[in-house]
Design a protein that fits this description.
Ntn_hydrolases_N, alpha+beta, Peptidase_T2, Isoaspartyl peptidase/L-asparaginase family protein, 4-stranded antiparallel sheet, 13 strands
């Protein structure tokens, strides 16, 4: 019997309901999720590593203007795009992360280069961009990252101190637009990757949980691979991704049990909204969230692919 392999991905969580998405947008999101899923699944089925699969899956999502990562990144206070990303290998616990990078076409590729070709884990801003140039990665002009929808979101907020996660009725389309992927390959190795454009109108070079290993991203062959999306400040304080691994390692919980405790109990008590995707060493997939919806998809070898958006 062929070894099990599995992939899950997300395109962000938040106030995502049937009322807020037009049928056209619903279809567009599902198509984009399916496309990214196909990219990663194809690599895993060919025997590629989990690390290669999650990177390629996230690149597919970064290249899609619908998601707040790479091309579709939101505008910060100054009308610019600052992007964060991280990736982790469950076999070696090697990790690479970048924060506050501008004009790098695919921040997840930069995080991978940090993992593979530097003696560091975490690079930020100009230094990370310099490293990207040294590694020959693609850069794009500001216009590449411009989308009308994101620009209008920012115009609503630009003269205020509000950022686009405020729990006010004005922002019913509050979405935590991070993208991510987790995978188990045929060799039994796990990997996780996450990428984001952060918050609309964010100020002071704010950094969320996405590039923080253990908070937004974590992978360990003994337990699981996790990629998070949500209100990053809470995910950092709750060390969400690592907490799930710990509950599995020290308490013997299943992936689903551990993730449910963290997402539906621990985070809720803190006031944190969002969700995550996870895959265990045995190929178990979980995609819990405590928000209205989460763009998500998964594919376990030998089973039908799953693409979903809303709670049901």
């Amino acid at each position: 019997m062929e070894n099990t392999f599995a992939l899950a991905l997300h395109g962000g969580a938040g106030t995502i309901t049937r009322e807020l998405l037009t049928p056209e947008l619903d279809t567009a999101y599902r198509t984009a999720l399916q496309d990214a899923l196909t990219v990663g699944h194809r690599l895993l089925s060919q025997g590629c590593s989990a690390l290669e699969a999650v990177e390629a899956t996230v690149v597919s999502l970064e290249d899609h203007a619908l998601f707040n990562a790479g091309r579709g990144s939101v505008f910060n206070k100054r009308g610019r795009h600052e992007m964060d990303a991280s990736i982790m290998c469950g076999k070696t616990l090697a990790a690479g992360a970048v924060a506050g990078v501008r004009n790098v076409r695919n921040p997840i590729q930069l995080a991978t280069q940090v993992l593979r070709h530097s003696d560091h884990v975490f690079l930020c801003m100009q230094g990370a961009e310099e490293f990207a140039r040294k590694q020959g990665l693609a850069f794009e002009p500001d216009e590449y990252f411009y989308t009308q929808h994101r620009y209008e979101q920012w115009q609503q907020l630009r003269d205020s101190d509000v950022y686009m996660l405020d729990h006010t009725e004005d922002f019913k389309d509050k979405k935590f637009g991070t993208v991510g992927a987790v995978a188990l390959d045929k060799a039994g190795n796990l990997a996780a990757a996450t990428s984001t454009g952060g918050m609309t109108n964010k100020n002071f070079n704010r950094i969320g949980d996405t590039p923080v290993i253990g908070a937004g991203t974590y992978a360990n062959n003994n337990t699981c691979a996790i990629s998070c999306t949500g209100h990053g400040e809470f995910f950092i304080r709750a060390v969400v991704a690592y907490d799930i691994s710990c509950l599995m390692e020290y308490k013997g919980l299943s992936l689903t049990q551990a993730a449910d405790i963290v997402v539906h109990d621990k985070l809720v008590r803190l006031g944190g909204e969002g969700g995550l995707i996870g895959v265990s060493a045995s190929g178990e997939i979980t995609m819990p969230f405590n928000s209205e919806g989460m763009y998500r998809a998964s594919w376990v070898s030998g089973k039908a692919p799953v693409v979903a958006i809303y709670k049901d």
